[in-house]
Design brief:
mainly beta
Length: 121
């Protein structure tokens, strides 16, 4: 049974940092790309970042490029998202999911509960 659990969200001031973590189980973690998504109120869920299975390649949305860094530990079945220079428009619920490298924006499994990130002064 696939299980995905996100954590690390919270309230932070503009310009601050947060580190999100995602723990996954129930599938061969090292065989899949892992993607982070976010959904802001009233908006569709969007792809934020993706890291390929071996961890050597990453992609980012234009809105977070240069500020967010995705990493993974295949030994621990975890994927992290380091978020720096946060802006109010980064406020959203953040989710992670597995993906195929050729379709990084297409989630393969049911969503976890997500973790809320709020950026406000």
């Amino acid at each position: 049974q696939v299980r995905i659990v996100e954590s690390g969200g919270g309230l932070v001031q503009p310009g601050g940092s947060l580190r999100l973590s995602c723990a996954a189980s129930g599938f061969t973690f090292s065989s899949y790309a892992m993607s982070w998504y976010r959904q802001a109120p009233g908006k569709e869920r969007e792809l934020v970042a993706c890291i390929f299975s071996a961890g050597g390649s990453t992609i980012y949305s234009d809105s977070v490029k240069g500020r967010f860094t995705v990493s993974r530990d295949n030994g621990k079945n975890t994927v992290n998202l380091q978020m720096d220079s946060l802006k109010p428009e980064d406020t959203a619920v953040y989710y992670c999911n597995a993906a195929f490298v050729w379709t990084p924006g297409t989630p393969l499994f049911d969503w976890g509960q997500g973790t809320q990130v709020s950026v406000s002064s």
